[in-house]
């Protein structure tokens, strides 16, 4: 089961996904709200925290979560304070009841990863792409439009056209034709 714990929060935060199952994992702890209470309202413990990237809106609550649950944090950049376990490109990670492959997808931020499970039909897209052809900002430090386009194209080549769900770093999850939204994001990013 995948739940966005930031749903309904008015503060500036990323989406925060709790993936329940055999291995209960929090994807991006978010920022500026009491995520610990929201986690505890659903589960007693976490097996890991996985970061799509380390922008402040995605990791502001990281210390609160690690203090409350004494849990390891997985991320692409092991030099980031708080990352305990480095995620390698193409590494397989269990989230909930499914195996996901981590795809290094820079362009929005150098340490950005997307997580894709072919068997579950699920993509955690972080801030790479969003619904309706939107895509991650490239005007921040480490942002680069050409690299972002390459990353979107990499994900597009990897995911199945029958993708069932795309969970993004901001905005609503996409459960109707998410592949088409990724394809549109690739087209839109190339146009600007």
UniProtKB/TrEMBL annotation:
Q: Which CDD domains match?
A: metallo-hydrolase-like_MBL-fold
Organism of origin: Natrarchaeobius chitinivorans
Pfam families for the chain: Lactamase_B
Q: Which Gene3D superfamilies match?
A: Ribonuclease Z/Hydroxyacylglutathione hydrolase-like (3.60.15.10)
Q: Which cofactor does it need?
A: Zn(2+)
SUPFAM superfamilies attached to this UniProt entry? Metallo-hydrolase/oxidoreductase (SSF56281)
Stated name of the protein: MBL fold metallo-hydrolase
Metallo-beta-lactamase domain location, by residue? 13-167
Report whether Hydrolase shows up as a keyword of the record. yes
Keywords in alphabetical order, please. Hydrolase, Metal-binding, Zinc
Q: Which GO terms describe its molecular function?
A: hydrolase activity; metal ion binding
Establish whether keyword Metal-binding is in the entry.
Answer: yes
């Amino acid at each position: 089961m995948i739940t966005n714990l930031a749903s309904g929060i008015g503060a500036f935060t990323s989406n925060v996904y709790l993936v329940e199952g055999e291995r209960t994992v929090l994807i991006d702890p978010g920022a500026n709200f009491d995520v610990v209470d929201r986690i505890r309202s659903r589960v007693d413990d976490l097996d890991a925290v996985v970061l799509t990237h380390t922008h402040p809106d995605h990791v502001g609550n990281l210390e609160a979560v690690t203090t409350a649950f004494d849990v390891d944090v997985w991320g692409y950049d092991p030099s980031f304070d708080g990352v305990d376990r480095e995620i390698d490109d193409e590494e397989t990670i269990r989230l909930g009841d499914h195996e996901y492959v981590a795809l290094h997808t820079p362009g929005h931020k150098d340490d950005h990863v997307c997580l894709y499970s072919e068997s579950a039909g699920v993509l955690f897209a972080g801030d790479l792409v969003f619904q309706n052809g939107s895509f991650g900002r490239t005007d921040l430090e480490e942002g680069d439009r050409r690299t972002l386009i390459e990353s979107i194209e990499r994900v597009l080549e990897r995911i199945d056209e029958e993708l069932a769900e795309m969970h993004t770093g901001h905005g609503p999850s996409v459960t109707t034709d998410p592949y088409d939204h990724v394809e549109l994001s690739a087209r839109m990013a190339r146009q600007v």
